[in-house]
Amino acid sequence: MADVEPSFAREYVPPPPGLEPVPGDPAPGDVLFLNGGLVHGSGPNRGADRFRRSFIGHYMGRSARHIGAHHRTLTMSGARVRLPESAGPGPCGTESAPHGPH
């Protein structure tokens, strides 16, 4: 279980056996790009205005044949692509009922 004092999440995901966490040290205003399979998190935001923004984008090849039901699939030009729903997609984490993809 995660430390609920500094964290909004209550789940802790341990690193796989043989791996250790690697801390990052971004400066205010930095932009981070993370692989979707990367387990990640952060401590509390202690900045003067205590505000963070996030933008989540999922990218996949045109060869994809299925996708999770919550994703609105578009081409890079913005055209809608309809794909059959994949088996097994779900929310990130298990502590609350899903309301969308994240």
From TrEMBL:
InterPro entries for this protein: Phytyl_CoA_dOase-like
Record field: transmembrane: none
Keyword terms of this UniProt record: Dioxygenase, Oxidoreductase
Keyword Oxidoreductase attached: yes
Compositionally biased region (Pro residues): 13-26
Entries under Pfam families matching the protein: PhyH (PF05721)
Region (Disordered): 1-28, 81-102
Gene3D superfamilies attached to this UniProt entry: q2cbj1_9rhob like domain
GO MF annotations, alphabetized: 2-oxoglutarate-dependent dioxygenase activity
UniProt-recorded name of the protein: Ectoine hydroxylase-related dioxygenase (Phytanoyl-CoA dioxygenase family)
Protein's organism: Streptomyces murinus
